Amino acid sequence: MTPNDFIRAKRDGRRHSPAELRWFVNALTDETIADYQATAWLMAAFLNGLDVDETSSLTLAMAESGAMLEFPTLGTVVDKHSTGGVGDAVTPLFIPIVAACGVPVVKMSGRGLGFTGGTLDKLESIPGFRGDLDPDELLAQAERIGCAWGGQTANHAPADKILYALRDATETVESLPLIAASIMSKKLAAGAGVIMLDVKCGNGAFMQTPQEAHDLALALVSIAGSAGRCARAFITDMNQPLATAVGNALELKAAFAELKSGMKGRLGRVVMALAEAACNEAGAQVSPRKAVDSGAAKDKLREWIEAQGGDERVVDDPSLLPSAPVTESVMIGARGFVTGIDCQAIGEVVRSLGAGRLSVNDVIDPSVGIEIFVELGDEVGESTRVFEVHAASEADAAQAVGELRKTITVSDDPVESPILVQPMEA
Ligand code: URA
Hints:
Bound molecules: uracil
Helix content: 40-55%
Number of domains: 3
Shape: globular
Number of strands: 13
Strand content: 15-25%
Number of helices: 16
CATH class of the largest domain: Alpha Beta
Oligomer: single chain
Low-confidence stretches: none
């Protein structure tokens, strides 16, 4: 196989064999294929597609391009993945709740992409929290307390890092098989037997329509099946922020409050649906509801934060998390019902406040972001407070207030909220 043979095959709409795709992935990591050749193939794949078998073979080869984690001493290990959203603070609750049910959870996460926040940035807002556990440390911690979390290392599906950078620079990101292979290569390499997939759908997600979300969910589950792993997918609504706050420390505060108040809010209901499915698949003896109501999940949260070097007192005293020097309330200034929330625009405002990155080397500010006090369908009056902005300066706050006002639509008649969480139907 030469790079030209490989590119020509896909340009002409032919199907690749598993061996050809493995050759390509090896050529990427050995650097024996030039970037311009790899990107020519990416565009051919973007335009002509990859079928289910090609996608699975590409994914497995990408997963095996680096270390494949294994946890032989732990039994059935659970992992979860979110396709990215705004105010998506599911992971910091999912991990301790499932672990408190006696099911080991080992999870690796990346930083945020685009306007969506990343778990790594959120957890690193806890003073002392270490996200750089190596595979031996992950295993040892999970053996000891039942859960461990780490940021992705350089040797975690390195072929995905190469391909993602090339896709980003050549307008070939939005291809369903390439997205599915990218996500699942990292999940397969992370070693879990049960993978919970949270596919976000709506104006604050990469998948904006139910059909797109369903197609991606199906592709992800099918790749897991062909690699011998169990995966369950849920489509969750992202037409409004999931947590009652957006921004790193603010989302953690909102998540801790949700756990303490019984997991009944939007964030809590999504976490519980994923946790219940994970516990069913892994054969847990204790239910997530019992773990939450008994306080075991909160104890596990503290134990987990402490094990990762963080100050576990933040759970009971969120004032120990970073807080911004300037706060400003935003009133709605209209009467009626909230019929639209531009979730992506909110994500962009929060990123501009400094909570996310515009380029890879940007340093994020853990303290900034917004709290949000309304949901779709709420009845509001002129002076209803919609947002509280947390900013590093008066100027940043003023800029954010102006932008945030445009993100809420108020109308005379109410709309029905989209379904919050539903299992993917095959
Ligand atoms: N998330 C990923 O990990 N990869 C993609 O290609 C898109 C979203």
